[in-house]
Amino acid sequence: MNKKVFRLLILLVLAGAILTGCAVGIRAESTPGLTVTDDYVYLSYMNSLFQLDQASGAQLSSFPEKTSANLAMYAPPVVDDGFVYFGDLANDFHKVSEANLKQVVWTFDKAKGWYQAKPASENGLIIVPSTDRNIYAVDKENGTEVWVYRGEYAFITEPLVVEDKVIVSAQDHMVIILDSSTGEELYRVEMKGAVLATPLYDPASGSVFVGSLGREMISFDLENGDVNWTYNPEWLATIWATPIILDNQLIFTDKTGKIIALDPETGEDLWQNNAGGTVIAGVALVGDQGFLVAREDGTMSYYSSESQSGDWTVTVPGNIYSKPIVHGEQIFVPVVKADAFLYTYSITGVPGWSFTPSK
Amino acid sequence: MWDTIIIQPFTNLLLLITMLVKNFGIAIIIFTIVIKLITYPLTAKQLKSSMAMQDLQSDPAYKKMMAKYKDNKEKAAEMQMKVYKEKGINPFGSCLPTFIQLPIIIGLYQAIMRVMASTPLELVKLERIVYPFLDVNKILPIQNRFLWMDLGQPERVWIGTIGIPVLAILVLATTFIQSKIMQPPTQENDQSAAMGNSMMMMMPFMMGWMAYQFSAGLALYFLISNITTVVQYAAMGRVDWSRIIPGVQPKEQRKPIVVFEDDEFEAEVEPEPVKTVKPSARASAKKQRPKMKK
After folding, report:
1. What pLDDT, on a 0 to 100 scale, did the predictor assign at position B57?
2. Does A300 fall in a domain?
3. d(CA A304, CA A286)
4. Which of B125, B206, B214 sits opposite A16 (nearest CB)?
5. Which positions in chain A touch B199 (Cβ < 8 Å)?
6. Which residue segment(s) compose the domain that A307 sits in?
7. Is the pLDDT of residue B138 over 60?
8. Total structural domains in chain A?
9. Average pLDDT for A125-142
10. Is A214 in Cβ contact with B137 (below 8 Å)?
11. Among candidates B110, B120, B199 on the partner chain, residue whose Cβ is nearest the Cβ of A31
C-alpha cells in the first residue's frame, strides 16, 4: 500500500477513535441511582439495572437481557406492587417484574429525552421527568400517557407528590406545582438559581423547603406558594441537595461543606458546623437520632442531633455524589471512581458488603 | 494541565458567548467561527505548503528525476532534500499546522461537551471550571433549544414515528462538498490517488454517522466547521466549484507556486556514463590510415 494512503488511513482511524471514543456509547456521565426496599437493593449504573439481595449484596437479577454500549441508566427506580419502574438514557421508560427484571411488562417510548431522575408513584400514575423538557404521567397498568406537562428546560430532579400536588424542581430557577391528576400548573415559586434538589415537605407545618444554586434556602406554603422566609447570607454557597428535618431543626449543607441548622418556622440560625470538604450529596437522616454528611471525597460522618459534631467517620473508597440511603440498620452508599459501585455500613459505621458487578 | 490550558478557557469563552447571545446554538456557531478565524494563519500555511508540494510532485521534471533514481532510494532522498532546500519547501510544512491545530480541535469538541452538561454530576463539574467572573447562576440553565433541535440530544425531525436526521445529512453533504472541492487533480492510472479518493469518499459517511450518533450540539459544530473551512479555502482561491456543480466551467489552471526547472535538474544530475566499446582492430587501422586525397 502506498505510504500516503496508509498515512491517510491511520489519520482517519485516529480521528474516528478520538471522536467516537469521547462521545459514542454512554453519552452522559452521572451518578449511580439507588433504591432500597425491605428485601432488595436496586442500583442503576452504566449499562444495567441490578437487583441485589439486601442482606448479602448478592446479584439476583439485572436488566437488560443483553447490555449495549448505547444503553445506559442512572435513574433510581420506583418499586411498587411487585413491579419496578425506571427510565434509561435511550429515552425509554420500563415496567418490569420484581421477580425477574428481564420480564418487561410495558415500555413507554414517547419521550424524546433521557430519564435521569427517580419517578414518583401516586394514584395509579407514574410521574416521570425527562430531559426533553416534559413531565409525563403514565398509567401504571398499561403504560399509556395520561397527561404531559411541557416545561422550558430539561427536568433532572425527582418530583415530590404531596396529596393532589406534584412539586417539581426546575433548572429555570423555578419550583413548579402541578395538579397530580391533570398535570395543570397551579403556581410556581421563583428562586435565584437553578433548582437541582428535590424539595422537602413538612406535613406538620404544610411548608416546603428547597435550596438552589442561587445560594439560598427558602420555605413556602404548599397551599398557595407564599414564601415564608428566605435564607441567603453572603457566605452561603450553592445548595445541591435536599434538606432534612430532625428534632424540629431544618438541616442542610452547602457545596463548601457548611452544615447549617435553621428554625423551620422562622428560618433563623440555630447552629452551624463544617464537614471540612465539598458536599454535593447533602445530608441523610439516620432514624430520629442523627444524620450523615457524605463529602465528595468519600469521607462520611455521622452527627447526632445532640452533639452536632461528628461522632464517627468512615472513608468510603470512592467519590460520593448521590445521597446515601439509610434503611433499617444499614447505610447504602453509591460511589463513582471506585472498584465497587456500592458500599454498605452499619449505622455505627462498621463496613458491610460492597457490590461490584460480575463480568 | 490540559484542562487548565485548553478546556477551561474554551469552556468559559463558550459560556461567555452563550450569556451574551442567550442561545447555545448561536453560541456554538460564533465560537466555531471565532476559533476557525484564530487558527486561519495555520490553515493558510498548511494549504500553501501542501499546494507547493503538489506542484512539485506533479512537475514532469521532478517526476523524471525521481524516476531516474527509483532504484537508488538513498540518492533519490538526497536529491529530494536538495530540491526542497532550494525551493524553500518544508516537507513537514503541511503536517505541523495540523498537529498544532489538533489540540485546539479536541479542546473545542470537549468544551462543547462540557457545556452541554445534562446530569447533576456534569453540572458539578461544569460549575467547577467556570471562572469566578462568570456567575454560574446567570449561566444555568443553558438553553439547549435551537431552531427545531435539542442540542443535548441526537437531532431528528419527526414525521409521525419516523425520525429524519436532517443535521447528519447536512454534515454528510458538507463533508462531501469539502472533500470534493479541495481534492487535488489526479491523473489517469494513478492508483494511489484513486485509493486516496476512495478514502476521501469515506470521510463524509464517517462524519455523517458521528453526527447521527452524537448530540445535535456537536453535529452543529461539525456542520459550521465544514462550511467555514470551505469558505476559507474559497477565500484563498483554491476551490474549484466545477467539481460539484454541473455546468460550471472548470477553473483555469492556477500558476504553480513551485516551478521545477529542467536545467536545474540537469545540473544536479550526474552526466550519463558514455557507453564505451572496444574498437575492433580493423576500425583502429582505419583510423590510423591516412586519408586519401581525391
Report:
1. 74
2. yes
3. 9
4. B206
5. 5, 8-9, 12
6. 275-359
7. yes
8. 1
9. 96
10. yes
11. B120
